[in-house]
Design goal:
The chain is about 30% helix and about 25% strand. By secondary structure, it is an alpha/beta fold. The chain has two domains: about 300 residues, Spore Coat Polysaccharide Biosynthesis Protein SpsA, Chain A (Alpha-Beta Complex); about 100 residues, UDP N-Acetylglucosamine Acyltransferase, domain 1 (3 Solenoid). The strands form eight sheets. It has an eight-stranded mixed sheet with strand order 2-18-12-15-11-3-6-7, sandwiched between helices. Strands 21, 22, 24, 26 and 27 form a five-stranded parallel sheet that branches. Strand 13 and strand 14 form a beta hairpin. Helix 1 runs antiparallel to helix 2.
Length: about 500
């Protein structure tokens, strides 16, 4: 039987492609090695660890940048992969103390408050009753430790953007009934899109030449800090990971108990998708395994399908429960190096087009045994990404109980209202100056505000309220006003006298 004929042109193209990839990788490695040599000797070892992880992710990016996910292979997760929270058995009260001793809580604290016009860590923005995200996180752990006579530590993963300011703030918690640990995630150089070379020429270069490579870096950085081994030595078995700005992410012993009973190494909390969550990553089955699928990985022609509530009914809250020993095992086997890469194009301050190669913590789910999702109530996903979210959590819709936001029982609906504040409210300082008090929104369904609008004190908003001040106009909602299913437009000034 004759051997199949080989197309020499196809072979040549493949050889050329492999050679091009090798040259790109070699050029980047050489530049990164130069950066390492320029680092101060006292910082070189730690800097080299960051650069090795960068070289690894860049090498995978170069070799796979033309690969796209096969849409036809995407399937919704099987029923046993996503468990309804209603099916999770309640944890016996007498077991909670023992479980607490085996737990540590980790908050992803790498973000800045620039979206809301603040400088420094987002976690120090006041969100309720004069308390910050960090204050609430510490209070929650303190209450756990006091109530259960436990020693649950709070771990903060900072970025190079937030570490210094965070360290100044955590000093005030030194007498708290919660041990606060800090570690820094990696620092990677931005990549010049045209040349595929690093943007910075020197490790000490400031500005926007560097970036934190996403929260998928949490496992490697936790290990590099020594805290992973330390937690395991202390008898901790699970870590609960969540974004510091998700005020709904609190310790749930029903979930933790379920993980022990089912020997689950990795659990992702998901919740039902709404129109507000169309860009959120979702769990899928792909080539026989469970995967996290992000919108950045979606082929452009299928983006609208990705956003569909009918096709993808759940999304990732980024509340993750992970076995510490399993993290150590997966890192040792080096399988985490295959976690999906998210390519994030950006424009630098100097106008240059750059790339950031990032990973998501939830994407690691495919490398752990007995991994699953638990479909939780929406109240466990309460992020504050902008001043519209801040408006909701600062309102009478919520009260504080042991550092946790609890929905006011007088609210008839379980869902929160849809609030869209215009660009005049985008920055926290402007937002605060336009509100003499947060309105009563217990009966609010939807609020849209656009233009030059201010609110007096003791205002009540009910049903659907739309307030539009067109260009050149201003609307002052007077103190004590009650707006129910109203559209307010034009010009309304309250003059002081």
């Amino acid at each position: 039987m004759a051997s199949p004929r080989v197309n020499p042109k196809a072979v040549h193209r493949e050889d050329s492609r492999l050679l091009e990839m090798k040259n790109i990788k070699d050029n980047m490695d050489a530049k990164v090695d130069q950066l390492i040599q320029k680092a101060p000797e006292s910082e070189r070892a730690a800097f080299a660890k960051d650069m090795e992880s960068f070289k690894e992710i860049f090498g995978r990016y170069v070799s796979s940048r033309n690969e796209v996910i096969d849409w036809s292979k995407i399937q919704p997760p099987r029923e046993n992969l996503v468990v309804p929270f209603a099916n999770v058995k309640p944890c016996p009260e007498d077991r909670k103390s023992d479980l607490a001793q085996k737990l540590c809580v980790l908050k992803l604290n790498g973000g800045l408050g620039t979206t809301m016009g603040c400088k420094g860590p987002k976690s120090v923005i006041e969100v309720h009753s004069g308390l910050t995200f960090l204050d609430l996180a510490v209070q929650q752990v303190e209450v756990l430790n006091t109530k259960l006579a436990a020693d649950v530590p709070l771990i903060l993963m900072n970025s190079f953007n937030t570490h210094e300011d965070t360290m100044k703030v955590v000093h005030k918690y030194r007498h708290a009934k919660a041990t606060v640990h800090n570690f820094n995630q990696s620092r990677h150089p931005r990549i010049l899109k045209d040349s595929l070379l690093p943007m910075p020429d020197n490790p000490k270069e400031t500005g926007d030449a560097w970036y934190p490579p996403g929260h998928g870096d949490v496992f490697r950085s936790l290990a590099n800090s020594g805290l992973l081994d330390e937690m395991i030595r202390q008898g901790k078995e699970y870590v609960f990971i969540s974004n510091v700005d998700n005020l709904g992410a609190t310790v749930d012993f029903d979930i933790l108990n379920n993980l022990f009973e089912t020997n689950c190494e990795f659990c992702m909390e998901v919740t039902d998708k709404t129109r507000a969550d169309i860009k959120g990553g979702t769990l899928i089955e792909y080539e026989g395994g469970v995967r996290l699928f992000e919108i950045a990985q979606c082929p452009p022609q299928y983006v609208e399908d990705f956003k569909s509530i009918k096709k993808f009914k759940i999304f990732n809250t980024n509340n993750l429960w992970v076995s510490l020993k399993a993290i150590a095992r997966v890192l040792k086997s080096n399988t985490l190096r295959n976690v999906d890469i998210i390519t994030n194009p950006k424009r630098a301050e100097n106008g240059q087009s750059v790339l950031q190669l990032e990973t998501a913590a939830g994407a690691a789910i495919q490398f752990f045994e007995n991994a699953k999702g638990i479909n939780v109530h929406r109240r466990r996903f309460l992020p504050v990404k902008n001043t519209s979210d801040l408006f909701i959590v600062q309102s009478n819709l919520y009260t504080l109980d042991g550092g946790q936001l609890v929905m006011n029982p007088k609210r008839v609906f379980e869902t929160v209202p849809l609030v869209k504040l215009g660009e005049n409210f985008t920055k926290v300082q402007n937002y605060a100056s336009r509100l003499q008090g947060i309105p009563d929104i217990l009966e609010l369904d939807q609020l849209t505000v656009s233009g030059d609008v201010t609110f007096g004190s003791h205002i009540s908003l009910k049903g659907t309220v739309i307030i539009v001040a067109n260009h050149g106009n201003r609307i002052d909602i007077p103190a004590g006003a009650i707006l129910e299913n109203k559209v307010v437009s034009g010009n309304l000034r309250i003059l002081e006298h």
